[in-house]
Design brief:
The longest helix has 17 residues. 48% of the residues lie in helices and 15% in strands. It is an alpha/beta fold and 230 residues long. It has two domains: 134 residues, Rossmann fold; 91 residues, 3-Layer(aba) Sandwich (Rossmann fold), CATH 3.40.50.300. It has a five-stranded parallel β-sheet. It has a three-stranded antiparallel β-sheet with strand order 3-4-5, covered by helices on one side. Helix 3 runs parallel beside helix 5. It starts with 7 loop residues before the first strand and ends with a helix. Strand 4 and strand 5 form a beta hairpin. The chain has nine helices and eight strands. Bound molecules: 2'-deoxycytidine-5'-monophosphate.
Length: 230
Amino acid sequence: MLSRKVSTIAIDGPAASGKTTLARRLAARLGYFYFDTGVMYRAVTLFALRRAVPVEDERSVTAVAEELIIDVRPPSVEDGRLYDVLVNGEDVTWDIRSHKVDTHVSLVSSYAGVRQALTLRQRQIGARGDVVMVGRDIGTVVMPEADLKIYLDASAEERARRRFQEAVGRGNSPEFEDVLGSMKERDHFDSTRSLAPLKPADDAVLIETTGLTLDEVLARAVALAQESQP
Ligand code: DC
């Protein structure tokens, strides 16, 4: 009997839970498009900052989100990128990774109008199919009909350790306690916001990654993709 293959895979979880790395590798394994939805919130934040729109001004930031034409596509340049992020045709793939954007993106992503505008666009991109979508609310809000939903988690200490090691690898020397503190702060903000809070969908498969290697998590996800029937 022929079975239809899994076409849309949703991966959610908190910062540094390993979802980005897992999604990237899972997408590469399946030959699917890796779609990191966080880049859209980053793009809106970048343009609000560039235009000197105060990020606390919900109405103005929402107007920016509604007006921008954002697309995320397979990479067109070989500079280590995993996708192109285009805003009104401009390539902002690297600009959205600035520290300033990091600092303000959580607030921007808490605005209802911003989420509405971006959710709509994410659904359109997801509807192209053969996609691994990563975010905080993919299984619950953006693609509740996804063929497979995975929710990754790990303890705050473990996740802070990963972020700390990444920073050290880049030549920075942060205090571990600071990294842990800001991780907990962001978790709290993302999971208690009233709109699309970070939480697993009822039918998501939970993978607790503390103590697991990336290869072990990947093997589990590949098996789930093979077992799941749309
Ligand atoms: O994964 P990231 O750090 O690039 O995400 C940036 C911000 O966007 C983060 O504060 C959470 C938010 N986000 C969200 O609210 N919903 C998504 N689907 C993706 C990201």
